[in-house]
């Protein structure tokens, strides 16, 4: 199941370790055991015959146990106590915890983003860099053109009335108008070619779609197309935001560096005011870079993770899993007859066990 699906109802486990799940294979009879464990405790709750593959039951390593018969649990001991009751039906609610973002580094994020785009979208990325450079040049030269227009060309024409001064003024106005128009056009093209634009379908989405077509038809027939497309579209959007943040960070930083020396030649007072505001803008850019870095750390292995999740959802969507469980002392020699079917891939897995 997709990670973090039920993270809104996961208990705050700062004082108690979360109860996780793994499969344990017996060396004697090749049976599989459901193991609930924390960092301090490790308890085998159940044994399942090897005739039913573990993953068909919808239980995957790393899942967190949320509740037993609707009762929230915080420890493996509590889970054992609840499972050992004489209740007719035992329902286990499991969730795959969302991966925690490691502390990121802005420089590593920039390197990762640039390398990813150069490998997968070299031509588009170079085109974006050229558009960014043009926009930076236009933004940097517009103050000089406007200063020449209002402080040189226009006063000279008003005082002398010479045709050459009029030509200078008209030429400057035309240059400002054309560069502004081209600036708007290049900004549109830049937004179009960025990852969150409509210029192309992200490579990761194309790879995932191609991977889906290689699966057997019987699996594709069981798939929920809407949920599958939603997962591809929504999860990969995270990568789009990382690339977009990189563009915004680069344009903002380089524009500021180019404008400062130009403004220094025009107005010393204005330059001082902007220089005082630089730390504020710099802190905002670094904060944006920190968020980008955290997202990038989680996306290093995103393609492989998404492909695995898609295949798991396709294999087990809208199917029923049954398994016969052998007696175990944790259940006081009572056997579970079957595990009920789990829900759609976009929902939390539920499992029911009925006493003999």
UniProtKB/TrEMBL annotation:
Q: Which organism is it from?
A: Prymnesium parvum
Give a yes or no for keyword Membrane in this entry.
Answer: yes
Q: Could you give one GO CC term from the UniProt record?
A: membrane
Start and end residues of each PDZ domain? 20-98
GO molecular function terms attached to this record: ABC-type transporter activity; ATP binding
Ranges for the ABC transmembrane type-1 domain? 211-319
InterPro entries with a match to the protein in the record: ABC1_TM_dom, ABC1_TM_sf, PDZ, PDZ_6, PDZ_sf
UniProt key word Membrane: yes
User: What's a Pfam family in this record?
Assistant: PDZ_6
Quote the protein name from its UniProt record.
Answer: PDZ domain-containing protein
- Membrane spanning residue stretches: 125-145, 157-182, 242-264, 270-290
User: What SUPFAM superfamilies has UniProt attached to this entry?
Assistant: ABC transporter transmembrane region, PDZ domain-like
**Which keywords does this chain's UniProt record carry?**
Membrane, Transmembrane, Transmembrane helix
């Amino acid at each position: 199941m997709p990670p973090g699906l039920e993270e809104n109802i996961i208990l705050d486990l700062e004082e108690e370790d979360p109860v996780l799940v793994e499969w344990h294979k017996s060396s004697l009879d090749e049976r599989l055991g459901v193991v609930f464990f924390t960092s301090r405790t490790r308890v085998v709750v159940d044994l399942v015959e090897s005739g039913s593959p573990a993953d068909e039951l919808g239980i995957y390593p790393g899942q967190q146990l949320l509740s037993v018969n609707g009762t929230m649990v915080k420890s493996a001991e509590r889970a054992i106590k609840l499972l050992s009751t004489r209740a007719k039906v035992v329902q286990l609610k499991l969730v795959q915890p969302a991966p925690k973002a490691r502390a990121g580094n802005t420089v590593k994020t920039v390197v990762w983003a640039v390398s990813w785009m150069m490998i997968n979208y070299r031509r588009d990325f170079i085109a974006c860099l050229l558009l960014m450079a043009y926009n930076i040049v236009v933004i940097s030269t517009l103050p000089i053109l406007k200063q020449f227009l209002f402080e040189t060309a226009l006063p000279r024409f008003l005082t002398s009335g010479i045709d050459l001064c009029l030509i200078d003024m008209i030429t400057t106005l035309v240059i400002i108008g054309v560069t502004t128009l081209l600036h708007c056009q290049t900004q549109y093209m830049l937004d179009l070619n960025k990852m969150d634009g409509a210029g192309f379908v992200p490579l990761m989405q194309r790879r995932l779609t191609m991977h889906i077509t290689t699966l057997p038809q019987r699996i594709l027939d069981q798939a929920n197309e809407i949920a599958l497309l939603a997962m591809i579209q929504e999860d990969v959007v995270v990568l789009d935001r990382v690339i977009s943040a990189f563009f915004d960070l680069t344009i903002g930083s380089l524009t500021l560096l180019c404008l400062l020396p130009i403004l220094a030649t025009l107005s010393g007072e204005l330059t001082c005011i902007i220089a005082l505001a630089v730390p504020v803008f710099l802190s905002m850019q670094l904060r944006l870079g920190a968020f980008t870095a955290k997202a990038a750390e989680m996306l290093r292995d995103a393609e492989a993770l998404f492909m695995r999740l898609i295949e798991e959802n396709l294999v087990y969507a809208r199917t029923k899993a049954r398994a016969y469980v052998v007696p175990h002392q944790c259940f006081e020699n009572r056997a579970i007859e079957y595990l009920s079917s789990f829900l759609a891939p976009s929902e939390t897995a539920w499992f029911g066990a009925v006493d003999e």
